[in-house]
């Protein structure tokens, strides 16, 4: 994955250098919240296998950075990487009401996005649409439920850790100085996990440098 990320950065950077006379390069760094909607179903309860089938809504923090190149004043491509941290959630066993409090796993998303910025100026709203991959980072952990049962969270297989991600969003870039400014961004993301799609709303604030 690291090699893929470096390759994408190299390709976009090369395109930027080739088109440097007419285009705009933008770097950004940001921090925010990634609100995940509830997913799962009590119908998936299986005694001895899946006692806690519903993942409640939760909102871990995330951070990241992006590199964008605008081929025209209004059209660009963005390479974006963002890491989402852990947060505490409480799961419920629908059969007996037992509860289990765990830490959600970290995950990393890498996307390539189309940027549309029709009103370029010191304040520039934009639209985006893109796709990429989402990878869970997990380790085997042992927890105890409220009723004293021991639960071992197994490490998912490599194929189960990696999923396709699509997203769309809106944002605004505001230049405070000639080349530096602030950025606000909201993205709706869908991760095609098995057996459920995981939906989230990601809101970030950050800094930009545009040349």
Describe the 3D structure.
The chain is mostly beta strands and 211 residues long. It has 2 helices and 14 strands. It has helices spanning 2-18, 158-161, and strands spanning 24-36, 39-40, 54-55, 61-70, 75-84, 88-92, 99-103, 106-116, 123-137, 141-144, 150-153, 162-175, 180-192, 197-210. It has an 8-stranded antiparallel β-barrel with strand order 1-4-5-8-9-12-13-14. It has a two-stranded antiparallel ribbon with strand order 2-3. Strands 6-7 form a two-stranded antiparallel sheet.
Fold topology:
Elements: H1 2-18, E1 24-36, E2 39-40, E3 54-55, E4 61-70, E5 75-84, E6 88-92, E7 99-103, E8 106-116, E9 123-137, E10 141-144, E11 150-153, H2 158-161, E12 162-175, E13 180-192, E14 197-210
Care to give the gist of this entry?
The protein has two helices and 14 strands, in the order αβββββββββββαβββ. With 211 residues, the chain is mainly beta.
What are its keywords?
211 residues, mainly beta, 8-stranded antiparallel β-barrel
Name the beta content range: over 45%
Q: Residue share in helices?
A: under 10%
Largest sheet: 8 strands, antiparallel, barrel
| H/E series | HEEEEEEEEEEEHEEE
Q: Give the tally of β-strands.
A: 14
Q: Which term fits the overall shape?
A: elongated
Structural class: mainly beta
- Kindly report how far apart the N and C termini lie: 28 Å
Helix count, DSSP H or I runs of 4 or more residues? 2
Uncertain parts: 18-22
The order of strands across the largest sheet is 1-4-5-8-9-12-13-14
Q: What value does the average pLDDT take?
A: 88
